[in-house]
Design goal:
globular; single chain; mainly alpha; 5 helices; two-stranded antiparallel ribbon; 2 strands
């Protein structure tokens, strides 16, 4: 992961790949596969996660379950308004944006939030012309 330090103000900035979530030590494709399995649309990560990764994936899903209303609101008319559970929300988000990377980009661009949390410092890179 790229990190930059500003000598003027002393702050550091981390640049996350498009399929990574802030503060989560998980690969995007593995998280996506795990969430798919939780929603009944896949068999989970291959190879199966080890003990440490499995714990991280379970905690991520638990956190996702607490954000159903926030994420449903963020997606607005792109998904049905009658969603009340995480598995259904994940399926609808995947239908609307197809991949985890696209979901993360949409949330950052339109609401300045991520899948599992709200971060005031979250920004997408400037588009190259």
């Amino acid at each position: 992961m790229q990190r930059y330090w500003c000598p003027g103000c002393g702050l550091t900035i981390s640049v996350l790949p498009v399929d990574r979530l802030p503060y989560r030590p998980l690969e995007g494709l593995r998280l996506e596969a795990y969430f798919n399995a939780q929603a009944g649309i896949g068999s989970g990560p291959d190879p199966p996660p080890g003990v440490l990764e499995a714990g991280c994936l379970r905690r991520a899903w638990t956190r996702f379950q607490t954000r159903v209303s926030t994420l449903k609101e963020a997606f607005g008319q792109l998904i049905p308004s009658v969603i009340s559970e995480a598995a259904h929300l994940w399926k609808q988000m995947r239908l609307a944006k197809e991949t985890l990377a696209a979901i993360l980009g949409f949330l950052a661009r339109t609401r300045n939030i991520s899948l599992l949390g709200d971060y005031r410092c979250l920004r997408l890179p400037e588009a190259a012309d």
